[in-house]
Fold each of these.
Amino acid sequence: MVTCPECENAVVPAGTPVIGEIVECGECASELEILTLDPIRAALAPEIEEDWGE
Amino acid sequence: MRGAEPFAVLASRVRASEKRILEALSRRGIAHRHIDSREWWHRLGDRVPHPIVLNREIGLARATYAADALEAAGATVVNSARATALCGDKWRTSAALVEAGLPTPRTALGLTPEAALTALESLGYPAVVKPLQGSWGRLVSALPDRQTAETVLEYVAALPSPQARIVYLQEWIAKPGRDIRVIVVGGEALAATYRRSEHWRTNVARGAVSELCPLTPDIAKLAVRAAQAVEAEIAGVDLIEDETGAILVLEVNHGVEFSGLQQALGDEVSVADRIVDHLLEKSRSCSE
């Protein structure tokens, strides 16, 4: 479980979390990036850049 | 540990699709490394310790240069630098599709917004203007008439980047409120989805709903040929149906997201496992 830095909601990643994983806060819909696993910490994910896509 | 991990996955954002791929590699006991592209750098002339690199970098500029550098350093990159460059540019994609004889909407390129306005007289209205690069339907604009075109192109003319002022135009296709996304891996179409929307831009990122589409032989064949035309080994091929029901190839995505499709597919096909299968096949063919 990580705490959303935007709204302090508790966010539980699906399955086994991995570093760099993007998870969405169910409360405020912020995208979070998992930074460390032990202890598990997350920060707001980087803003979408102009050339991002699939 | 150099040389101990033949496979690497290059990605800055581990989205659901990347996580599925990493999980599939781990579950199958395949030694691999996740490389965060925000930290990756390369000294020219060095060899890389990972012979096979799956390029899942979300940023086109980073993905293109990484693929170039990795290939020059001796790695096999999936998708290749050439495929990434072709898929990342709508004009180059369209040119490759036409070269391969595949059906695609009538397309034109204007080197200036003024030239684009002239080209539109030939292409006819309604039409669509799209940025050469970009995903998720961003900045794609409908041009129902000349008046709208003049307005939109005036904005295009004011854009700061020289490349952004190169204008990609396409005829308007009156599609039936949906398009078709086909996942192709290693020359095989795995599955297809309809993306339905009330909005004319049927991107999932814009709220379109995804549901399974029957993978007919015609759809599968067209998608595989489209992926081959741009040399993409892993591809999300976008198809649209016109008023007559004919299917046209719209574009090919080199870094396809598939988690939504996977949820719809259930256990029928594991896209991540098929990607891993393809990497293993590449590894075998590279070592022969």
Amino acid sequence: MRSIVLTKGVPDFSEGAVSFDEDGHLERGKTPTVMNPNDHFALRAALQTRVRHGGHVSGMSMGPPSYSSVLEEAMGEIYSDDSYLLSDRELAASDTWATAITLSAAIEKYQEEVTDVDLVFAGFKTADGETGHTGPQTAWCLEWPIVTHVIALDIDPDERVLRAKRLVEGDVDEIETVEAPLPCFVVTDPEFEPTYRKAAHRLEHKRLRAATEERVEDFDDHLTTWDHEDLRLDSEYIGLDGSPTIVSSVDPIPKAPSEREATMIDPGDSGGMEQVLEELQPYAGGD
Amino acid sequence: MSETRTDGGSEDYEHYEAVVVGCGPGGAAAAARLAEHGIETLVLERGVEAGSKNVSGGLIYAEDSAPYTIDDLFPDFREEAAERPVTDYHIHNIDGRQVTTYDLTDLHEHDTDWCDAVLRRTMDSWLEQRVHEKTSETGGGVLTGVRVNGLLRENGEIVGVTCDELDPIRADYIVAADGVNSELARAADLMDWDEPDEWFQGVKAVVDMDADVINDRFSIEEGEGVAHLFSGDLFEDVRGGGFLYTNEDTLSIGTVFHLDSLVAEEAEPHELLDALLTHPLLAQWFDGEYNELEYSAKLVPDSKKVAHREPYADNLVLVGDAGGQMQAQGPIIKGMNHAVTAGALAADAYALTRGNADPEAAGRRYTTMLEQSGTMGKLRPRRYELTSTVGEHDLVTKAVEGVLNSPVGSIAVGNPIAKRLLPKAYNSPFLVGMLPDTSMAYTTLPSLIGEKHGRTVHWENEIEPPSLEERIGDLTYNTDVGNPHILLQDESFEASGAAVYACPVSAEDFGGGCYRAETVKTNGSEEKLVSLDTQPCVECGTCAIVADTEWTHPRGEKGVEYKQG
């Protein structure tokens, strides 16, 4: 199996360090970058495929040169063999459509110059855009089938089909099993759980981890960077110029004001504590 | 190795030629040796890392007479995985503040090539790496976090193992090195857990101490270590003793008691450990400072009674504690070395009988090799067999104790000739092998020696060991919430009450332990019941023997995780 995992760097929202400029555009330079949290599930699906069926996994990301750190993180996590970064100034400010064109061009170049690809994995929407468009649009550009919201994956390399369990409408109560021919684009759901019930698979997992620990040391030796010329992309169709999406503004959501009133009481004040108990009394009976 | 495969059934299970369950010294030796024979070997270990579930008092021996020692199989063992070698060996006979110390170095060095103190997390995790390297070369390897929970049978015959985390695995040969609470030995009907008098229970504290301070306080140089044993009246009437071993920059201090005696005396194991820790004799080594890193506990099989004479069933063999191969005779406590020998012999037995259609061929060969190598003779000494009927006879014991306690007996022990003879007797492997398991050997004689020949210890030991609550709080647990690994079958105090005090992480009047006693009022009458919370469990297995439980190990990576061991 030959897989490509698409992963994206996103602002680290957890730090609360996101900053916007006057026009409401995200200030990426001032916000630390981490791997898109949902991509971790895609990585696990790719790793499970690699462990069970062998082969090769490449990590691929589009973004500024500093995004190689995300690919390095991906290598550590899924033991990818090599990494591809699609990066130059012409690609900056791409929306999902321009990104899909760029990614599909890169996958096609990979197929022409490296080898045929059986599977492309992507995570379920990114934490910054939250559109969920890039994956489907990339599959559309490649003219590949796409299976989304995948929670379990089984591949039959001989028949060249995959069988996936997926959440219908993203709802955990409704699960369907689908079959798709390879090559196929797979979008994993955050509910995806890899399973390793065979000792051979766990041993392979362990072997890959050990091999990766050495490879990550020389990460740069396994990194290929392609710019828009490598991808033979016309700058009119990529980057800001190729992006039909217009973001009118980004407004921070105001915090809802609390409707409750707080009264401060000193725990040492016995009269105050009595008041608390009195207030609580009506609720003590469970009604 | 397709020529020896016995599968072909309808189930499409994975197959390995050999499966070794447990990666302690026994499993490691078996796996390393199997791999050396070119046999595809899979090792399954339930801890997050080998050693995370293991505890030992702390000395590993290399016997001159043993066919295999751990450094034969793992050449850098002593440099990489062990603590200090034991260069001095003493026993202290204690009667209150009166202490008589004998140098036991002669006994210690009998048949001993070397002896090192070890901490099991460091030791076993190092072994795991070496074993993984070796077994990977023949198509196998070590997997951690996998708990083998039973045997795969076909037409009643053992053909493999079942696991919590993996699908069943077929194997042509199964080495059960899954420790003192071996679930495989029980599944194969090779072990029962009924009798407390077949077991010892040990508890241990690992105490932080700088290497320089250890050298200074124990008067040793770098690369030297000491072992101290303690017997006498500091444990009241509970039969057993204490030990202190020096590691690189910690001390291992513990107590080992006959489980039946703990139950009979309703003794609290942690309090007996504290009795040792706070004895004036130990003040010289603590100097008022005490920083306990880890509290741990373990059951110890008494090989004299439970070392299995034919430790196999079909294609399964028992190695180490799983086979009861733990030699505890008076001051001689040897387990890991026998596990190493047994593991290596089990591997050789399979290599020699490989391809034999009879699934028990390897087990029979292994049994013969245990005998011929002298290992079984050490585990079940003939001398003990002869004297045990006498030693365990209450009347005889009482008579002997009566004599020792009488003025005549006291004079005999106390006389100047005895003063010279007793250290010699203690250093005699022959006599020590005959020591009966009575309080005469553990308490009466040592305290009498202490009284008659002892010097008074004037030091004050002012250290305060942590409470049981603090000890439990310092341990690392990965609790399997909602999935307790022990079920209490009979909650009446008569059936299971012994666990309240014998469990090393439970105590009467302590609500934070595994077992608690509660008085429940029903229909006007009061009933004393036992309740169980497995969260603080250290997986020693004591309650499986003294209470009515359904006892299993937690799933892979769950439960307690020892950092020292």
Amino acid sequence: MIFHETKLDNGLQIIAELNPNAHSLAIGYFVRTGSRDETADVSGVSHFLEHMAFKGNEKYTADDVNRIFDEIGANYNASTSEEITLYYGSFLPEYIDTAMELLSTLIHPTLRQEDFDIEKKVILEEIGMYDDLHSFTAYEKVMQAHFQGHPLGQSILGSVQSITDLTAEQMRDYHAKHYLAGNLTLAVAGNADWHKVLELAHKFCDHWPGGQTDRPTDEAQPKTGTQIITEKKTQQQHIMQLAPAPSARDILRLPAEILAVVIGDDSNSRLYWKLVDPGLAESAEIGFNEYDGSGTWLTYLCSEPDLIESNLQLIQQIFDDVNQRGITQEELDRAKNKLASRLVLRSERPMGRLSSLGGNWVYRQKYYSVADDLELLNNISLDDIQELLKKYPLGHSTTAAVGPMTTVVD
Amino acid sequence: MGKQLIQTHRFPNGLTLVTESMPDVQSAAFTIMVPGGSIYDPPDKRGTASILADLISRGAGEYDSQQLSSALDNLGVQRHEGVSNAHITFTGATLADKIGETLKIYAHIIREPHLPEDQFDASRAGVAQALLSVEDDARQKALVELKRRAFPAPWGLPSDGELAHLAGITIEDVRTHYKEGFHPDDTIIGIAGNIDFDEVRDLIESLFGDWEPSAGREEPALDFPTEKTFFTEQETTQTHLGVAYDAVPYGHPDYYTAWAAVGILSGGMSARLFTEVREKRGLCYTVSASLVGMPGIGRVLCYAGTTSERAQETLDVTLHELQRLGEGIDISELERCKARAKSSLIMSQESTSSRAASIARDWFYLKHITTLDQIHDEIQQLTTDRILGYVHAHPAANFTVLTIGPKPLEVPRDLS
């Protein structure tokens, strides 16, 4: 495993972790833009733009883009979050030229009006699809409530209204402002030659406009309160709750990952044994999400409505106990073993390495090999967990409920 | 593809071990398929296998439920237990030097589960919660219900069981299901990764060699569905559409031809359904078709989710695309299928979990392992004429159509 990094003159960051024994190669453009960078009048534009990227440019039509990716047998796609738009693919190493050209094409699409009009319908369908997924609705609502007045509360998909009203001109302006080379990181993992990567990056990216957009990253000051969203007739009740947690650059982020595994992993965690194992809930989990400047504890409970109140009490008891007494050495060691194994198994595929490689760079401007990550993990102690709990106790500031219940005791 | 090191061993009690040595990786993965799946549920107690799949890891041998989980976590095992129609399947992956200790624990789970009565209600409640979740997820429900209607019972029935049956299932039913289904004959253990065959074979011999074979049992009779169109009214934003029609099963000489025909419809974003339904008309976000099977029977299952006012057009365009396949196939469409196959075959060598599952599944369906080279050769030999010949012999016709949403759609009469 050899790591390389450089920057083009226009500010495009390039990083690569190369492994000549890998069967494949994964490439990703991490664009530092997402829903938090949008203004209200263009809500959902980052995600819509991600779709439009696949419509091609002056050289390649939409049909060409999909056809050529398929001709090289690529696994490719894109995703948009609150903070990052990612275009990625994995390929056989012999197709690096085509893969780099096509992925680079995605970054500067032509944004033709006709394509925009058709794709708008697909986006509205996607909003409809997520509307039928109740846990997703709960996530959107709890993010809105928790980050009220802060950009992290802005919807990734946008609303039916904001997407209907959005114009291609507004999208072009957004693209021109955010798709600057200084906002992009090109990450490469797997079987490739560094000189070849550089040669192709120069060929396809040198002409991109330079510059960088600022993003205010003040830590959010969440509001408290409960939002009840009484949804269509569902069998199960979905509850999501958020509380402040460390941000992406906080030294406490790794202890937070470990604590989330101990308390709320989907198996063998405290929430699991108290709620899922006895059959009281279908899901009872806690996750740690990190962002620029802020972080969240995300608690998710899904169960039959008549068990919600007692289940929420059980969760609160667990949180109170952990906040007062912490966790045991045995729990810490077991979580470390679990995380270490996940890390190593995921790293066996270039596609598995790509997200941590790119994510670490975008958030922390740092390379961590798998060995570095394992060492960091091993060094976490109970004292670190105590420090974390002192600063970011488990709990909730905001609650969203989706399901048949009309009231939920907060 | 590079030479694969695949070895198999059948023990005197009927247990089959299939292995693939992958010296370039650090991990090892296993798939254990025990023939105790949902098709063996009593007809009025659908869900028995599903409860067993949950209860079986709640204590075994010297471990109680929590000790078992902790022992596996400490070995870094990423694991899953689940029920399918034919099997209860245990899968896991960990670092290669931990695989021996891991398999020892699984021998306890499979051969000496406690099946504790005081945890039976919890297991049953867990199964009920999972079934309720499917009721709330119209997309998942559409696929479950389509499968029910596209395959004969009991193979098409939901392997998780039926909500209405759960209350009538007892701990004794679950224990009986265990006794009848958990035997070495027809159990398959697939292991892939950085392993030594001789060591693994000796270990499996010591763990399972004295496991008593069964006295044999009757396979459940097949009950073929007769109805072809279905509608379930549900307050959803989208209408969820499922369409099924006949294909050949895995192991059939035309299987890879059938795979390519479905690939032309739905393999990759340049395939026909995605291009015609989503890209050109913007009718939906998701549309797909896949080849699904049970031993001896194959079907193509299609799904699309679309807002209700455009659902009729989505159904019409989808059916038209399925039928249009017989009119002609472009060589470039086939070439893209071949490229996708080549890359996914090569990339599958980067995942021990995927190889372990694949070799175990192959043994179940074929009683031999198809190497990646053999699959590659089969696919490279395909021609557009051969695929067209297949499509004409197995046309997209005699559809089963299912919709879930606010209002029913019109299914063209000549289809049913």
Amino acid sequence: MAKTVAMVGTDAVAEAMRQINPDVVPAYPITPQTAVVEKYAQMVADGIVDSEMINAESEHSAMSAAIGAAAGGARVMTATSSQGLALMWEMLYIASGMRLPVVMANVNRSLSAPINIHCDHSDSMGARDSGWIQLFSENAQETYDNVLQAIRIAEHPDVLTPVMVLLDGFIISHSIDRFDLIDDDVAKAFVGQYTPRNSLLDAANPSCWGAFDGLGGYFFEFKRAQAEGMLKAPAVIREVGKEYAEISGRRYDYFASYRMEDAEFVIVAAGSAAGTIRTAVDIFREKGLRVGLLKLRMFRPFPQQELVEALSHAKAVAVFDRSDTFAGDLGGPIFVETRSAFYEAEKRPQLMNFIYGLGGRDLPMSLVNQAIEMFKDAGSAEQKKRIVYLGLRD
Amino acid sequence: MAIKLKELVRQKELLTGGHRLCAGCGASVAVRQVLHALPENVHAVTCSPTGCLEVSTTIYPYNAWRISFIHSAFENAAATISGVETAYRALKKKGKISEDFRFIVFGGDGGTYDIGFQAFSGLLERGHRAVYVCYNNEAYMNTGIQRSGATQFGAWTTTSPHGDSSAGKGQNRKDLTAIAAAHNIPYVAQAAVHNWRDTITKARKAFQADGPAVLNILAPCHRGWRYPMEQTIEMSKLATQSCIWPLYEVENGTWRLTAKIKEKTPLRDYMKPQGRFAHLFKPGNEGVLDLLQEFVDEQWERLQQQCAE
Ligand SMILES: Cc1ncc(C[n+]2csc(CCOP(=O)(O)OP(=O)(O)O)c2C)c(N)n1
Ligand code: SF4
């Protein structure tokens, strides 16, 4: 039977990894991800798993080793945060370009400067165009569930694309949360065995990886093929989500809707903020305001059409972003993409952007309430001010 | 086991002809010598950082390697091969692979001495069983002859040019071979392409080492060094004779010279034929040559002492 546990979010990652028991885990510590590496190292030391760990000398090398190991036909997982993800940046493109199904948890943390160890989404947003699938989690349960599903998604022959599972630093990573584990044998059967299509270690068929595409070569075609993997990913993500529901009872799709059926005012948000927002939705509903929440799970690929459809009945939509694009007054990344998705739609709701929580700034109920009060008056002067930095000190 | 040329020529070349390195390039000579030392019935995965060798041997959809090859980026060949070697151990342990494999990096000096230095050190410290070969042409050749940490004092490169207020590179090279040895790994050696017997002997030891091994092989580049392309082997020989590039090995901590120098020749004889040093023979720059000679003499003295202990 499924077991209920109380653990911090980093342990949720480690527990999923334990059940997957990947062949190779290269890693490098950084707060708030470190606890994942430590926990897993202990599991290796205790013989609970038989993964080979590589204690790399940097995140750049950790991702490089992940690439080497995956090209060698191994199932590979790692985890990072913030500056570590930034240091991997060059290699993220190489992992996806080589179509290596690496799975990595990224514990979201802000990027320097100033140095700040707390949560925001600027690290993973910086990597949004690196060709990785990105799945957000709201809590430890979703983190655990996403990691298990990520393996299946990444390794699917139609996809062959690395997956990043995102969890909010400290808010999820270091808070004790109650969640359900699937039985080990069920989890193992779900993720299955991995058989790579090609490998450096196929003695009978030597292969060449990362070749030079210099002289009027095929680079463009390679990138188009990579884009194809991303185009096919949503169907696979949905399919894997359905299969996962059968063994866990928990449903996963591109996003999760809360009180959306008749919602006039919708908040779009990703990550742990969804919990607070859900409560605010209930409160405003009691006051008679038709508010709803669309919690974004799949940010890459971006579920354009489905999002537009789900939001088409809304009068006004507030997009909550935990990072900025610094593009002048264009807004945060989720806002930019949501707005772009509506370009061809016949019905376009009023869109407003709330940038919140940078560097771990708290998102209390009062701020969510404030935001709802602001955007419920669609078309008012306040509403015309499209981008609001929520909870900024004067 | 004696190395017989007659037998070597019968061995299958694992780096095929038709690659696009310049005619007379020292790098391909180094690679072929090392691969001739690969034990029989052993498979191999090789990895190169970005550089001349990599771009010239893997022009898609062609490639010149008969063994598996991976290039991922410029600074991380050591980390990439660490991953491959670890995958091998993991999969072998699980019974998914039964064959015997060796792991080799062929990295330029830029990808080893400079940008790849951290990953290089990481590989050695972690003890992966891999042979790291630096084909050392003493500059970044692929991007058009820029200075590296291996470039000699006084040498011209495009980023250490000579002019009214500069006489070429203003710093001595770093001693990568000694730095590698300081990691206390089983086998480290310095070799040069003219002495194939010495290189192959060293490569055999490197492949046998139960842990990381490093071969720093001088591989002259006529484009960057500015000498006629048919003189690569001659340049390599002059480098060892002048002791700017002595041949030695450090086997389990024991230092040993592997080629006797009967008579150390003046550095000038080595430098004169190379365009990269031409400015040092012009009036006003004589002092630079003397400084380099001094540096080489000192290093040679120290090495002889280390090898005598
Ligand atoms: C991060 C990064 N910086 C710079 C480069 C450009 N680059 C490619 S190869 C190279 C120099 C290679 O020099 P070396 O390692 O000495 O090899 P060689 O070309 O001499 O064989 C440089 C600077 C790169 N590919 N990646
Ligand atoms: S430029 Fe130099 S190192 Fe590069 S291929 Fe030509 S000879 Fe070899």
